[in-house]
Amino acid sequence: MYNYNDFEKKWQTKWKEENIGVSNRDETKPKFFLIWAYLTVSGFHHVGHMRGYSYADAVCRFKRMQGYNVLLSAGGHASGNGAVSKALKVKENDSDTIEYYKSKGLTKENLDQISTPEGFVDFFSQMYVKDYISYGYLVDDRRFTVTTYPDYQKFIEWQFRKLKEKDLLVQKPYFATACVKCGPVAVDPSEMDLSKGGNAEKQEFTIIKLKFEKENQFILVATLRPETVYGQTNIWLSSEEEYVKIKSGDETWIASKDFYEKIKYQVDNLELLGQSFKGSELLGKYVTPPIINREIIILPSSFCDPKIGTGIVTSVPSDAPADWMGLYDLQRSKEECDKYNLDFETIKDIKLIPIIKSKDFGDFPAVEICENMKINSQKDTEKLEIAKKEVYKKGYHTGVMSEVCDEYAGLKVEVAKDKIKQKMIDENNAFIFYDLSEEVLCRCSSPVVIKRIDDQWFIKYSDKQLTEKTIEYVKEMSILPDSFKKNLPNVLNWFDDRACARQGTWLGTKLPFDPSYTVEPISDSTLYPIYYLVSLYVNQGRINVEQLTEEFFDFVFLGKGNSIEVAKNISIDINILENIRKDVIYWYPLDINLGGKEHQTVHFPTFLMNHVAVFEKNFYPKGIFVNWWVVSNGGKISKSKGGVGSIGSEAEKYSVDAIRLFYANIASPFVDITFEEEDLKTYKQRLERIFVFIENIISSNEFKEDLKETELDRWFESKFNLRLQTIIESMEKIEFKAATDEIYFNFYNDFSWYLKRGGINKKVIFSVLKKWILTMGLFTPHTSEELNSLVGNKTLVVKQTFPEIEIEKINLSLDDKEKNVEKMISNLRNVIKLSGLEKINKISLFVSESWKYVFYSEVIAELEITKNVGQIISKFISKYPDNKQEVSKAIPKLLKQPMSKENIKTQEEDYNFLISIKDFLELTFNTSIEIIKAEESDNEKAKSATPGKIGFLVE
RNA sequence: GCAGGGGUUCCCGAGUGGUCAAAGGGGCAGGACUUAAGAUCCUGUGCUUAGUGCUUCGCAGGUUCGAAUCCUGUCCCCUGCACCA
Prior knowledge:
Elements lengths: L3 H14 L13 E6 L2 E2 L6 H19 L3 E5 L2 E2 L4 H10 L3 H9 L4 H6 L3 H18 L15 H16 L3 E11 L3 E2 L9 E3 L5 E11 L1 E10 L10 E4 L4 E7 L2 E6 H7 L6 E9 L7 E2 L8 E5 L12 E3 L5 H11 L2 H6 L4 H6 L6 E2 L7 H8 L8 H18 L1 E2 L11 H14 L3 E7 L4 E2 L5 E12 L4 H11 L3 E3 L1 H13 L3 E2 L1 E2 L7 E2 L2 E6 L12 H8 L10 H9 L4 H7 L4 H14 L4 E5 L6 H12 L8 E5 L2 E3 L2 E2 L10 H8 L1 H10 L7 E2 L2 H23 L11 H22 L3 H21 L5 H14 L5 H10 L21 H24 L6 E6 L2 H16 L3 H11 L4 H13 L10 H10 L1 H8 L2 E6 L6 H5 L6 E4 L1
Parallel strand pairs: 1-3, 1-27, 2-4, 9-12, 10-15, 22-28, 27-28, 29-31, 32-33
Antiparallel strand pairs: 5-6, 5-21, 7-20, 8-9, 8-19, 10-16, 11-12, 11-13, 14-15, 17-18, 21-23, 24-26, 25-26, 29-30, 32-34
Helix pairs in contact: 1-28, 2-23, 3-6, 9-12, 12-13, 15-16, 15-21, 18-20, 22-23, 23-24, 25-26, 25-27, 25-29, 27-28, 30-32, 31-32
The chain binds one RNA strand of 85 nucleotides through strand 2, helix 13, helix 16, strand 23 and strand 31.
């Protein structure tokens, strides 16, 4: 019986008792050090996390069984505001939150504990460790650490001092996404910090100041296309919306109230002047834009949104479809103009200005595209959006500025754009404004805006030397998948300076030289694999936080200073200090950092660059493994959104091993997969089937001791070794699917075939069986241990050596022979089917006439000399005058479908072989079989037999 | 836009120059076992045929004795783009 729920616990306990996951330095053995990327401590594990972990554990178990001293470490990431805001919700007794945690089985005491950020982090990180154990991952949990622990923070302080020493920290102004209440937040689709708007993009608007009525009074318009200033014919605003006057120094600006609420975070010392007023008050008046310096009229439109930009839009009807429709709507309706008190004739007189010449378009792209797309009104917003993108794309990439554009005439749009923008900014006629493309709300539900920060700290990832050095090193690394390895240099080149610390009340490490800043979550998780080598000593109480000084880290990580001095200075036992240093030298560099695909563009690049920046080359990481996601209904399974059950209930339903096998076998690690109940069931059944199959073998009394090895036995051993070869090669290349195909499917089939063919050699069966069970230790370790003990092995699978290939047992010709049997059976079946006979009484098998064996060998030899068919035929016809027809047919065929000499046996051999499988064939076809040499029969089928091709007669 | 990935037989998904009508699994069909269901086992699953031949790996061309695999063009789909490990 496959009682996985019982034996999973049993073996986990056993591993724990025998300290299998515990890894200590052992210079007599080669080491292998693997980590998986930190998990953010923000809630429960879900089955998606188990994908990467299962891969990591399989690799580690393989290495372990190959004699490596393996260290698999894990920790938690808690910097940022995740834990803070979640704990707050518990503290505030938010009913949904409380309900949720209660449904997950948390007690009153648990809830009390997680109502503070620290308690929250402790509670969940302890749960993570339990989860690792319950899925059988052999993690060295003595080293577990969290980024918010005081000892870890000492490590981060050290790291930032190193970066500063190397001039890789710089300060400059920055426009950060920030909650108006909480400070900087991350705007990203995972919405870790947000309650809404994770998909928003940061957009750069150019705000142009248009002179209006008085000296130093300006109407502000926002544009993404500053190069189109030459084509302005008017500006748009909404007659119904409210606008305000804003005082900035001695200037007065007119824009929407919403704009004021956003720009005040980017420009200092602004204040509102007087009351707000309706846009209609401005209609029909004139403004003067910079650069073109001519008056243009203010007109109404329906598409001005006070929430976008300044709520006022400059109009370039030649190139902006919406502007064209807006103008067109007015120009063809006197009624509409009258409504706003506008002079119809003036409006009709407004002429478009050709400013950009681009591929596929004439002077006025906006007009053309509106005609082509049959857009008839400014209200047709959906089509206008598409039209805008199309015109913009063409204009930006293929456009050239026209002759009306002064000194910019003839320039490409992409060049002119920046020049015109810069000129307006330099002359104080414009400034830059950053905005989000959609509404974003913080987790605290306050709005998120873009805020200017003057002295923001950055890590200088743009540093040329650092970038080049890293790119150069990447070439030497083992990185999977290959597509990521290829893309990584691009990512590194693209990687710009990164704001590395924020001002706010988050969990994390303060910058040692500027405590108003807290290191941001990405930046404090780049060098951490090396810290697992220290956290062990801290967790064991052999070193305390105060002793983790700069001098200490310099010594243990960089080998600076000498142990006597350092030990004295920080008052520590010199043995401990030297042991840490020795551990570092032994375990580092890291062999594999394994993480999900989301890390490709942020974590992995920073992980690499920081290592390159801080350490010598012998400490650079050796490998990266990226796994894709587990998705449900098209989206990533997330901790908060649910979709599948908890990892505990899924394990109960399907077994841990089935889940692990599912991840290894369902697809390559480099595609997203869906956690489907049907698939899980299949894998569970597959394991159960194998389990019962082996149980039956163990209890069977059909097998015999002390038998001489038959060809079939030797084929069986050969086959296993061939499979084993593939398994080992696949594991070395980290190809789980190929490995598990062999272990759980193909070899299972081979084994069944062996038994079906009548294999009964107990010694052979059990020697192979034991090894097969060991191979299962990589992916389904619990099942493997259970079977291993059932088969009478007292040593744990994890403690055994992975089976080695016995090359001498591999016999390809036996394999061919067995394949031929299968092929023959399949051919026979086909023939039986085609015969149309209801019932088969007898099958006759004809072995080819003996002269043909000689003849075939001769022809094959001849074909190596010449391919001239005619010549060969005439030669052999004279040699075999009695078989002219036979000869002239066989030769062209042999040319077309060449046979190797090795495949031509003798008649006697073929005959004896058929005799040897006669019983098996009779059993398979449930009829009597007669084996006849072709010379002894007159049947035409007897003549059709050739060497390598048995003649069939079914009747 | 920048950078990258991909289109395989009913489905998932292997497969990078011949041994490929294309692994493995699933589904479906038939059979065995069973009182029955489930599980398990066997067989089949492009068309055709006494073991043959033909057509197929997004589409169109090309290289080659030979292409799912290489090249060119083309259509379609997907991912990331920054403070989120």
